[in-house]
Design goal:
It is a single chain. The chain has 15 helices and 13 strands. With 389 residues, it is of the alpha/beta class. The protein has a seven-stranded parallel β-sheet, sandwiched between helices. A six-stranded parallel β-sheet has the order 10-9-8-11-12-13, sandwiched between helices. Helix 4 links the parallel strand 5 and strand 6. Helix 11 crosses helix 14. InterPro entries: Glyco_trans_1, Glyco_trans_4-like_N. This is Glycosyltransferase involved in cell wall bisynthesis.
Length: 389
């Protein structure tokens, strides 16, 4: 028997694709068979592996119906996992996903990656309808669970809070890693992820202009390439703006781009050589951040703006939070850590303690238990229906 995961998938480079891959691997460790229905951008052709049984073109509405019919006609598929993020599906506010679920006669669960506190009407309706037909709904924070119940009117009995998973990064000596990457002697501040407006990198750069005055031996690493879809529309406009800002602030020797999509091995190394991880999202409603999750998993000392996800996961002194998206306040918090080894080690220890609970094998076990319970309940309901005929 098998499970189908619906969402973006590698080689597409985006957070949902990485999440889908990691979830698939962790479910298979726990004994499940997982196949993929991939969502692809209309203008890209991806060389998928054999695990992808169907490819939905994002804006091709009939593809969603055909994918549902394929699942309906495949007896060994027991359940579908729908990864939900508005931007990956076609139609207004991603409502083509409803064309899939309306034609599906197998049980499905929804994994919510974005639960907006002030959704537009179509966004509210799309997620509300998607969750109303689902057998289960997974969210990654208690705050999102509260919003789903209060605002989106999801039955609380359907909701399961399961944290974002962390890859099994290999823990290594920071000084050895700094030597490997030519960073010996520097205190490293880093931010990683696909680059684009909304990441707040300009806040980090402006904060560095204050930090280096007091701590000239610091360097800010901006890790990751420009989001491929953004690059196809606008080229490197955002990165060029950041480069201009770096020159304007005379920070050429203190800010370094690593302009590539990092493998898990490379990412783990960069995180473990990082002294302070900076998460400068300006959007206070950011519900989940895989990048912040990974930094916690590696036990980094963290400075962050006070967005929704950071407020929940960095409580109990797991990180330092700026009250607003302000470069000066971020700089003050960074300098507090640079000036106190004791504070740095305390933040690292508390983050690492939480992060160990978020390893993908453990998270996969939580998903496995949730999925098996839903499948069992679904089979029980089918038996009752047959008995009543």
């Amino acid at each position: 028997m098998s499970i189908v995961n619906l969402g973006t998938f590698p080689p597409k480079q985006c957070g949902i694709a990485t999440f889908s891959k990691d979830l698939k691997n962790s479910l298979e460790i726990n004994g499940e068979k997982v196949q993929i229905i991939a969502i692809s951008d209309s203008n890209y052709n991806y060389n998928y592996g054999e695990e992808v049984i169907f490819n939905i073109k994002q804006q091709q509405k009939t593809d969603y119906q055909q994918a549902a019919l394929l699942i309906n006609n495949t007896p060994d598929i027991e359940l579908v996992i729908v990864q939900h993020e508005y931007g990956i599906y076609g139609g207004e506010s991603g409502n083509y996903i409803l064309n899939f679920t309306e034609n599906l006669n197998k049980p499905y669960i929804v994994v919510t990656h974005t639960v907006l506190p002030r959704p537009q009407k179509r966004q509210l309706n799309t997620l509300q309808k998607l969750c109303s037909r689902a057998e289960g709904v997974v969210c990654m924070t208690e705050h999102s669970a509260h919003l789903l119940t209060r605002l989106y009117k999801v039955n609380p009995d359907k909701i399961k809070v399961i944290s974002h998973g962390v890859p099994p990064f290999k823990k290594e000596n920071p000084e050895i890693l700094k030597a490997k990457y030519g960073l010996t002697g520097y205190q490293i501040i880093s931010t990683f992820g696909l680059i684009g407006p909304g990441k707040g990198l300009e806040l980090g750069i402006r904060a560095m202009s204050e930090v280096v005055k007091e701590y000239p031996g610091t360097k800010y690493l901006i890790l990751g390439q420009t989001h491929p879809m953004l690059k196809s529309r606008e080229g490197e406009k955002y990165r060029e703006m950041l480069i201009h800002l770096i020159k304007e602030l005379n920070l050429e020797n203190h800010v370094q781009f690593v302009n590539k999509f990092l493998s898990d091995e490379e990412l783990g190394e960069y995180l473990y050589l990082t002294d302070i991880y900076l998460s400068p999202y300006p959007n206070k409603d950011q519900a989940v951040s895989g990048t912040l999750t990974f930094a916690i998993g590696c036990g980094r000392a963290i400075v962050s703006t006070s967005y929704t996800y950071a407020l929940e996961v960095l409580k109990n002194e797991r990180g330092l939070l700026a009250s607003k998206a302000d470069p000066h306040e971020l700089a003050c918090l960074i300098k507090m850590i640079l000036g106190s080894r004791e504070l740095k080690e305390k933040l690292q220890s508390r983050a690492y303690e939480l992060g160990q609970k978020w390893s993908w094998p453990s998270i996969g076990q939580e998903y496995t238990c949730f999925i098996r319970k839903i499948i069992q309940n679904s089979k029980g309901e089918q038996k009752l229906n047959y008995a009543g005929l």
